[in-house]
Amino acid sequence: MPRKKKDSYAIAVGERLAAARKAVVPAMTQGKAAELLSKSLGKHITAATISGYESGHRLPHVFLVNALCSIYGTLTPAYVFHFDNAAETMQESNLLKYFRSADARDKRNITNLALHALNGLYPKSTDSE
């Protein structure tokens, strides 16, 4: 009997999930990921299920990817599902949230600090308060 051909999108999603799991410090096994996912969702998930997602044999539901991203803390669901082109970690996502909620003065200070750290220079501000 011929094997079912894997979908290239499912493979790409699986590769990103596997990379996220492997990026966790300390390293996380598929078994540990399944255990944590089971606790998070309140239903039994096996290491074989995680393996099926990571190998591209199965495409996980959005709620599973959301839970895995929360467990791993390394990627966003948008990145896993290829809704954006650049990898955005949870840390980057949180920093962006903080930046967006800051007032204008704090945004200038954050921007100046970031540019200073990257370039060693403070840009001249053209904004007037």
Automatic annotation (TrEMBL):
Transmembrane segments: none annotated. Residues 44-80 form the HTH cro/C1-type domain. GO terms for molecular function: DNA binding. It comes from the Bacteria. InterPro entries: Cro/C1-type_HTH (IPR001387), Lambda_DNA-bd_dom_sf (IPR010982). This is XRE family transcriptional regulator.
